[in-house]
Write a structure and sequence with these properties.
The complex is a heterodimer of chains A (184) and B (280). Chain A has 184 residues and is of the alpha/beta class. Chain A has one domain: Alpha-Beta Barrel (fumarase). In chain A, strands 2-3-4-5-7 form a 5-stranded mixed barrel. In chain B, the strands form 3 sheets. A 4-stranded mixed beta sheet of chain B has the order 4-2-5-10. Chain B has a 4-stranded mixed beta sheet with strand order 6-9-7-8. Chain B has a two-stranded parallel sheet with strand order 1-3. In chain B, helix 1 packs parallel to helix 4 and helix 2 runs antiparallel to helix 3. Classes of the chains: A alpha/beta (184), B alpha/beta (280). The interface between A and B is large, with 46 and 47 residues.
Chain lengths: 184, 280
Amino acid sequence: MEKKITLPLTKKLAKTLKAGDRVLLTGTIYTSRDAGHKRMCEALARGEKLPFDPTDATIYYVGPTPAKPGQVIGSAGPTTSGRMDAYAPTMMKVGARGMIGKGARLPEVIEAMKEHSGVYFGAIGGAGALLSKCIKSAKLIAYEDLGAEALRELYVEDMPLTVIIDSEGNNLYESGRREYLQGK
Amino acid sequence: MRKIHSDIIRDTVEKLCIEANYRLPHDVRYAIESCRDCEDCAAAKGILDDIIRNYEIADSENMPICQDTGMACVFLEIGQDVHIVGEALYDAVNEGVRRGYDKGYLRKSVVADPVLRGNTGDNTPAMIYTEIVPGENIKITVGPKGFGSENMSAIRMFKPSAGLQGIKDFIIETVENAGPNPCPPMVVGVGIGGTFDKAALLAKKALMREIGTSNPNPFYAELEKEMLAKINTLGIGPQGFGGKTTAIGLNIETLPTHIAGMPCAININCHVTRHKTEVI
């Protein structure tokens, strides 16, 4: 039922993923949300480099709770992706390909995904305790002053995700609902 | 006149912040589990199973159910025969929030200014709602509110001629607009009447009322049932991937209003609808 995939998310791998696919994702991902994206895009506008190599990278829209002593990370579920729509096309332009979040995306993000073979994965919103279990390491890499919004490098194993929008622009939010209602 | 020291208020708020974020209330669990049993889409059932597994892990491992541990909405019902001694009341509440969010390893999600931003670093200030009631107790409810769902809320000042149908259409329109964004299955709080601001407050209060309880007025109790059933024919489903369970609860609160108006506010919450109360 579930496809196991290993990062980086190359163009070739991205093209094999279809909206509605359930995947177990393993590899290194980067966390960023509102304030982090703003800073990264400002850095790019100034011609500076990003704190990580964006080539074939996957970004998880998350602001985790602090880790308790002995924990790798606290609760770490997805935040609403739409707030990153203003930045996502810029991130894809410099090579980032995967996005993990929840909620609808704007048409211009979907267009950028089609152009750059981007993939939008959904993690279960509100399941932060469950999702924290597949995060095996977490390292702060930039913007520490942003607290929960700082940039972190995570290593995840078998992270349970669903492809919401694929590189051809197919959208599970539309097809899932349509198919459910048609089946009734 | 009963004296209550502000330290007790502070310590109660601290405890409620942690408890509310670690343990999903029984009414919400019951609603999710009932919906899971009634769900007629296999994939949606699987998502509801994961949601149940998530709050069970949070409970057993003492960790936040969701990483958005919210803005601390603190409702105080203060008996008019209570004399609070010690610190200023709001300082005590904010200190309780500060300590709770620190000791509980909860996320600090508050910025000091809506436009200029800048995280305050301790999740204060709390949003405090104070009511004076008869008696000599203080009832404290902490409802951490996540913003993925808060952002999908809406308010409209209807003309009275819009009538009941206007309200019904607005509820459906707001849930449709919310779609997959507020982490469905959602809880819908509806406030009708009062003034612009009071309608919004009623909607927030509706979210604090236990799911499964009804508005005492049979007309609104019936409307609650009807609108919840209607929302669950939209097909949005858990996480917006399609399915029956789009909402697990819908509560309506009302107030009298002006001859010229019919305000209606809709506050959306996610399946991690948290509220914890203690009376001191």
